[in-house]
Amino acid sequence: MLDAAVDIQMVTDFSKLPSKLQQLLQYWQGKRKPGHIPSRKDIDPIEIPRLMPDVALVDVLRDPLDYRYRLAGTNMVEMTGYDRTGMRMREFFTPEAIAATEILIARLIETREPIAFEGKMFWIEENYRRFQAIVLPLATDGRTVDMAIMGLNVIA
Question: Is the pLDDT of residue 115 over 90?
Fold first, then answer.
């Protein structure tokens, strides 16, 4: 568990993720070239229209580690009641959630590999609801993670 206050656990067996998150992973893998990770230019929403309501595109920021929403899918907006486009994670997460998310961002930057996790939806008032997510790194230069595409699945 990354942080007991936010109840997040890493998922290492991606085959246990729901179909839509596996489809997003397969899409990203199809865009990956040997030794390089995809860039934002490689991602075309028209190619994954059924996944887009549950997808967010974010800028990965450093110093301090953070992310800023470029795009939030319609299901994400409906779930929270507002569009987070342009907002940083630090603008709405609790200090505990920020600390846990910094660990995830650092891992994404360091490994340059997809990460998946699950837990309670700590960022909304209905934090009894559970979720699963996958975060896929993107890099303008093929190596340095500067963006990510995230997929979200609400469990209950």
Answer: yes
